[in-house]
Automatic annotation (TrEMBL):
Source organism per UniProt: Amycolatopsis xylanica
Domain called YCII-related: residue spans: 12-82
InterPro entries: Dimeric_a/b-barrel, YCII
Protein name: YCII-related domain-containing protein
PANTHER family: GSR2449 PROTEIN, YCII-RELATED DOMAIN-CONTAINING PROTEIN
Taxonomic path: Bacteria, Bacillati, Actinomycetota, Actinomycetes, Pseudonocardiales
Pfam families: YCII
Family to which this protein belongs: Belongs to the YciI family.
């Protein structure tokens, strides 16, 4: 399994209405162990989520189902692979 940081920038006029469905979507993924952490940026322009997926293709299959994406609330999306080496949840 691989880790990916996904940063999105919101379409400001749309994201507020979609937020409850987006959070339900991410909560299920967190319960399933796919999302490690997620939340909005402090400046309110977007958010960041840390996902675990088999590869980037599998990640795209997941994140393309996000209500923010499906309902046009994402202005920009950046995906970056991530290799965790230190942390409370990183195996030694």
């Amino acid at each position: 399994m691989a880790w990916f940081f996904v940063e999105i920038r919101y379409v400001q006029e749309k994201y507020g209405d979609v937020r409850p469905r987006h959070r339900e979507f991410l909560t299920k993924l967190a319960d399933d162990g796919v999302v490690a952490v997620a939340g909005p940026l402090a400046d309110g322009t977007g958010g960041v989520t840390l996902y675990q997926a088999e590869d980037e293709t599998a990640l795209l299959d997941i994140i393309n189902q996000d209500p923010y994406y499906l309902e046009g609330a994402v202005a920009e999306r950046t995906i970056r692979g991530f290799n965790p080496v230190i942390g409370a949840w990183v195996p030694a």
